[in-house]
Amino acid sequence: MGKRELLLYSQQRIEDKTNEITAIPLIPDPLDVSDAVVSIDAIGTQTKIASQIRKQKGHYFLSVKGDQNNLLEDIEYAFMSNAGLDNFEELNYGHGRIETRKCSILLALDYLQGENYQAWKDISMLVRIESSRDVCGVITQETRYYISDETIRSASYYNSLARGHWGIENNLHWHLDVTFGEDRCRARNGYAPENLATIRKLALQIISNANDKLSLKKRQYKAALDEEYIKKLIAF
Prior knowledge:
The chain is α+β, with helices and mostly antiparallel strands. The protein is 41% helix and 22% strand. It has helices spanning 20-23, 47-55, 69-81, 108-111, 114-119, 155-178, 192-208, 216-225, 227-235; strands at residues 37-40, 59-64, 86-94, 97-107, 125-135, 138-148. Helix 8 crosses helix 9 (227-235).
């Protein structure tokens, strides 16, 4: 498998005294998401957002948590009473870490109550991801649930969607915080936060595409000291 590229297409400023729920619908609106899969954290799991994605001919893969109590309870009960229409399990290990992931899927039509089934545009699949991580003998477990409008009956497919969703967190947000110190930035007024966020993401994309064995942190540091190196990064 080749290197997976991370490309930022759009970002949306959250206006004062609002939250992500008002900003999320503005992001896919100008984009062509036809035949693409849109994944969103639980805060974006809203019926209107799902309908908008389908209206734009895209597919949704939405995380379900406690904010959607009735929906979450229905999904949890569905998997308690059925092992899954299809199941997929994978094991990853290295550097003292062992991680197992099991993905199970069920048809929404068979298990959701009428109100929940009718509320979500074209809902088709319920997805459960059970993960267990053993780091030097310390074991942590987590279960996540998702809904999707797609009709593909392959647990491995939805597992790959979940991995791709969390790859955004690991490869974008984590590096913005750790590599660029975004959370420590005290710029709060006017357009400064938005402008700086744009510059950080552009810089992250540039150093991520470098063809060397340095870590992103070391590439950033070397670029600050070596004019020729930063020229190579920009020209890459």
